[in-house]
Aspartate aminotransferase family protein
Amino acid sequence: AATDSITSEQIAVGKRAHELDREHVFHSWQAQGPFDPMTILKAEGSWVWDGEGNKLLDLSSQLVNTNIGHQHPKVVAAIQEQAGKLCTIAPQHVNDARSEAARLIAELTPGDLNHVFFTNGGADAVEHAIRMARLHTGKHKVLAAYRSYHGGTQLAINATGDPRRFSNDRGDSGVVHFMPPYPYRSYFAATTEAEETERALRHLEDLITLEGAANIGALILESIPGTAGIYVPPAGYMEGVRTLTRKYGIIFIADEVMAGFGRSGKWFAINHWDITPDLITFAKGVNSGYVPLGGVAISDAIFETFRERPYPGGLTYSGHPLACAAAVATINAMKDESMVENAARLGEQIIGPVLAELKAKHPSVGDVRGTGCFWAVELVTNRETREPMAPYGGSSPAMAAVTAALKKAGMLPFVNFNRIHVVPPLNISDADLRTGLAMLDEALDVADSFVTD
Ligand code: PLP
């Protein structure tokens, strides 16, 4: 059970770590000068303790990766056991942890995705999936959605449809972006979900025609776009994408780095539809990030391309034993403890209904959407005009105040532009989840004070 006691020694260690961090650590995505990172002294289950010893409910699951919560004892033990046996081995050798992780993943992925190439994380999984698709088809262009995130390496950030791409853009990436469905702010002037699906698919097919199907090797799409706003695709859209990619000989890469491994209430978000993509990229939830791991699940047909022809790619740590042992233990713990079923139940019985109540109560809530333990609350200053509470790509005094209120209430939140994401561990207790949603309710009072007529 979680203990609340943080000692003065732990706090002193945290303060020293913070000083050293500011002197020597270069952080992701930040202007280094003004950045004041939060120290985490300890983490257990759904809770973390900050540098002052305050206990915070981790409704962010860090970067939406600790699907089994922090310090799951079975996974910690598996990593310790593997470390005692064999910490590392080069990727060309056979290793039992890696073989078993690949078997478990192949068993969980849909259809004929029977082979797994392991990477260190999500971005390099995306890079390799695109490389495989290009080599398999002999075609270079890649279609990717706006309002998406695919990773921070060169090609992955070029495939990304969020402002982090702007300063990394390269004209020769071969990526062309399309508009995905977003019923709440329909780009297609749709008034129903059916219209949104039909028009978004027509736009996609037009784009394929205009870009030249003969040049397009891959289409990469998050099965449920995550960081960009948790947009569960409207009925028929994903089937339509599968049909179009087949029709034009385009490899369909489902990016499941965030949506996969139970987050959406199914093992993979693509399982919400009766389709099989050609490649699935995964990372994060595969082992809850306890040791860095990602990968690509590969169809039989793409595997055949590389049966006789060498695959031109690799990593020193592909299938690292510690990471794979953590994946095996994570997947088994998720099965034994029915975490995926629990995520679906939490979404249906608690998060969905409570967010609907919060939407009815708080005029600042424009839209709530999601599934499983994967939800977004979109804040607006005016429900009629749907004016976002922060501009695309930015923050605002209103969102800063809401974020501060969430932290003050005792939550470690996931906030992006004008959205708060409710993305707890899949095994959070019902009581903790309700506590977190009550904190959200409290913070939304602050958001309401920024609503204008
Ligand atoms: N793809 C998706 C859908 C993601 O959400 C992320 C990370 O948030 C990535 C790729 C990149 O993964 P990583 O940060 O492990 O490189």
